[in-house]
Amino acid sequence: MPFIPHTDKEVRQMLDVIGAESIDDLFDEIPDALRCGSLESLGDGLWEQEISTLMQEKAREDGQPLCFIGAGAYDHHIPAAVWQLATRGEYYTAYTPYQAEASQGTLQLLYEYQSMMTELMAMDVSNASLYDGASALAEAVLMAVRANRKSKSRRILIPRALHPHYRATVHTLVKNQGIELVEVAYDDKTGQTSLDDLNRHKGGDFAALVIPQPNFFGVLEDVDVLAGWAQANGMLSIAVVNPLAMALLTPPGEWGPQGVDICCGEGQPLGAPLSSGGPYFGFMCCSQKLVRQMPGRIIGRTVDLDGREGFALTLQAREQHIRRSKATSNICTNQGLMVTAATIHMSLMGAEGLSRIARRCHGNLQLLVGKLTGLGEIEPRFSGSVFHEAVLTLPMETRQVLRTLAAHNVLGGFDLATHYPELGNALLICATENRSGNDMDKYRLKMEQVLASRRQGACATMAKFD
Amino acid sequence: MLIFEHSKPGRRAQAQAPSADKPAGIPEKLLRKRKPRLPEVSEMQAVRHYTRLSQKNFSIDTQFYPLGSCTMKYNPRACNSLAMLPGLINRHPLAPDTHSQGFMSAMHELQEILKEVTGMSAVSLAPMAGAQGEFSGIAMIRAYHDARNDTGRTEILVPDAAHGTNPATAVMCGYKAREIPTKADGDVDMDALQDALGPQTAGIMLTNPSTLGVFERRIKEIADRVHGAGGLLYYDGANLNAILGRVRPGDMGFDVIHMNLHKTFSTPHGGGGPGAGPVGVSERLLPFLPIPMVGTDGRDFHWLTEEQCPQSIGRLSAFAGNAGVLLRAYVYAKMLGAEGMHRVADYSTLNANYMLKRLMDAGFTAAYPERRATHEFIITLKKEAKELGVNAMDFAKRLLDYGMHAPTTYFPLLVPECFLIEPTETEARESLDAFVDAMIQIREEAKTDAEKLKGAPYSLPVRRLDDVRAARELDLHWQPGEDQA
Amino acid sequence: MSNTPDNLKYTKSHEWVRDEGDGTVSVGITDHAQELLGDLVFVELPEVGTQLTAGDECAVVESVKAASDVYSPLDGEVTEANEALADSPEAINEAPYDNWIFRLRLSNPAQLDELLDAEAYAALAEED
């Protein structure tokens, strides 16, 4: 019996102690009509070798394509030590640190994580993480509505240049509380959130303005102006940032005259593998005065009975297990294991390492954009400066280009047609430090062939070039 | 010692940083002026520090961990190594279907497996944790009523013994949570339920077995009454381990359920996440399932999104939920097969009833002595608190000295001085016996030296911590300079 | 045994009320309430100027393991909140009747008569 240690003899002895004839007897309080059948459609269990073969087949089927997609999930190098340590049983198989004395490893690590995030974001406090970047933004929106004492508004200004899946997720998670998301347009030329459009809302009653850095197009926002605008208009500001970018760019705590009120984002670039979109982790920091409105676990440093330093969950009165229907959120845990990886990752990289990775990614993007625009028919869509991701305009349908490239094992980027039809044949590309010069040359070559076959009027879709 | 205290300016884990140029094309005013003060340590220092920290944790791999309502069963290592195969772990979430058939076939099969074991009509794997599964469930109930223009339903009923996430979730979905009392035998008070039901009832949230560790015997009648009032039934899958392969929530009359794969399907708890909280629904809630899901034309697999599911409650994450956790659950389910599923409920129930009987024989008080234990049970230490002056927390802390994680204490709130104990099916009889023996021993210690117990634990990295100080004098992060003077 | 001064009025939800004789009252939580909650770590105060109806939630007292709403005992406007409690919530544990949480200007002083006297409240607290 996989994972069950009982011998037949033990089962008999245990039943004798209980005073039951059989295991069936232990279910005698359950009405007969409710007992279920044999579940035979599930088939027989596989032994470890069989399931290994099956999974290896599935993994092989998906191949190892050359990936130039970013769009919120980034293929970064993760030091070998990170997951070797994070999957130690003591981290991997522990639960939420309810018994603080028996969880000092996890608790201290989370305290170190909070310390690193407050430094990286230049904010006062950090929680111990939320589920992912998109749901963290939803929690930030709910928090802003609770916390904005100047405004009773339940409306939030949210840029169209924010990740479309983030906007959709926030909508799902806040709409039942009557919170309305009002879209702010982007500037068609620069790709930045449009100040003109924002100014239409001047004097309007909103709880908060969301400010991405960089935005979904990779374009850098004029964050000082946006944060200042929010403050001048009585709104809280919510930053949504790429944490790796913050090793290079001005952090949210230093935006505008006073810094932002809340900042959040996707922690994936800090040590989480792509893994089909999860598990990642959402991070959240805020100013000191909002700490009691923050959702999620928070760790504090304190002392034990002997005066020794130790770590414990704190500010628990915000949480569902105490406040029940009045809690700041229904969230119960965090993404502990992902944060374990992130904390080890940040320790190994340090500020200098993260900054170098950020610069390397950015440099790679510049190279790739140069190679592709060098082909003549491809142009950058926006004039705004970018970080490690950019939008290109293609001379033909993006979907068709991507399909052909994929047939050659190159994932050429993210097609913006569904979410931004107004951009025409637009493609969002990314080149992390994991893409070499050869990789980019291969991309350029394949793209050149796609464009050439189009000029020749051939059906490019499934053409074989190699 | 904090990692920051190992830090020296200018020291680096050189192997982890490439050379890089100054960033071109980024305006000076957007560049960071001051570097974040992250640790500056060597690779070995980091490895040693985090290895040592790990040794300060109790975990399933190192200790018996009978934390009630959390299902701390063995997490098979194969689930981890197979979910981390290169082709799976490097797959970009937005990779085209042509490069995703392997992954999607596993997700589709997992949807089918979960449908079968729960008796529901369809499953979405999108929710990233139990609490998100709960949210999805109640949001679907709301979407269902709204779609029928039945907008007068404003209340979700919740038993008073329920987990705190239940009422918090109802509020997140714009409902009022109304509590239903529990009877002395642990079942829902049917008269109170009848009084609470009405045209304002949107639904009820139940766990079965309940958080009291007993099976709700009149579940069918509850289902009939709630449905009769026009409400829907939500099943909180917290205790699914108790009935896996024995009873299906769908057959009990539930309209929507969530499952905690980190409990029932043995994915790791990871020190508090990541989890996964898939939802299953009956026919009538099918259009509202959260996206994305995996569909198939019988040969190939594809994503189901807004386009195919226009009535969906929507997205819950940037991508497709906690895919890596789902893969681990898939491996586990495939290793169990049909037979293995049955054994989960059988042996977790055997272990719990055995422990309960032994504890009762030793003179401890069961909260519901007339009832069968399910996969977990409650004892109350009220008598010990009164007679010996040591409470449940003292017992819990002393158990740590005996090398066992404490059970869940002071939950559910209904039972004073309680221990909620869940041994799980993967524990051998020796662990169960050792726990009971430790409880007996601790009671003996209490008789001779109660004060000593109040100071426990003694053998862990720290003794009891000053929670009051932690909350009054908030110290939530290291201050640069505090230890580098 | 908790302390219940005779010169104050009380509510079933464990607030005490002191008539200041100028149309205002001071409100705090009782000795019995602070005992039940344990060491307080935070007090969330109402905003001055808020109009309250008897029974409205208007403040929160938190201990490590619990959080409890404070309800307005009477109709009125908040004229003062005891900001000193922000830094020293433990003052309520030490002297619950010396440390009011907020003051109200009453809009319906007759309601004072509907509150519990010390004897009635002490009996109620006994049952807890």
Task: Describe what this molecule looks like in 3D.
Chain B: Keywords: Oxidoreductase, Pyridoxal phosphate. Chain B: Its EC number is 1.4.4.2. Chain B: The glycine cleavage system is composed of four proteins: P, T, L and H. In this organism, the P 'protein' is a heterodimer of two subunits. Chain B: Pfam families: GcvP2_C (PF21478). The complex is a heterotrimer of chains A (about 475), B (about 475) and C (about 130). Chain A has helices at about 10-20, 50-60, 80-85, 90, 105-120, 135-145, 165-175, 195-200, 225-230, 320-325, 335-375, 400-405, 435-455, and strands spanning about 65, 125, 155-160, 180-185, 210-215, 235-240, 260-265, 280-285, 300-305, 310-315, 380, 390-395, 410, 415, 425-430. With about 475 residues, chain A is α/β, with parallel strands linked by helices. Chain A is globular. With about 475 residues, chain B is α/β, with parallel strands linked by helices. Chain B folds into two domains: about 80-335, Aspartate Aminotransferase, domain 2, CATH 3.40.640.10; about 345-460, Aspartate Aminotransferase, domain 1, CATH 3.90.1150. Chain B has helices at about 45-55, 75-85, 85-90, 100-120, 130-145, 165-170, 190-195, 220-230, 250, 260-265, 325-360, 380-390, 390-400, 430-450, 450-455, 465-470, and strands at about 120-125, 155-160, 175-180, 200-205, 230-235, 255-260, 280, 295, 300-305, 365, 375-380, 410, 420. In chain B, strands 1-7-6-5-4-2-3 form a seven-stranded mixed sheet, sandwiched between helices. Chain B has a four-stranded antiparallel sheet with strand order 10-11-13-12, with helices on one face. In chain B, strand 8 (about 295) and strand 9 (about 300-305) form a beta hairpin. The longest helix of chain B is centred in the C-terminal third of the chain and has 39 residues, at about 325-360. Chain B is globular. The two termini of chain B are about 15 Å apart. Chain C has about 130 residues and is α+β, with helices and mostly antiparallel strands. Chain C has one domain (about 10-110): OB fold (Dihydrolipoamide Acetyltransferase, E2P), CATH 2.40.50.100. In chain C, a hairpin with a 3-residue loop joins strand 6 and strand 7 (about 65-70). Chains in contact: A-B, A-C, B-C. Chains A and B meet through helix 1, helix 2, helix 3, helix 4 and helix 5 of A and helix 1, helix 2, helix 3, helix 4 and helix 5 of B.
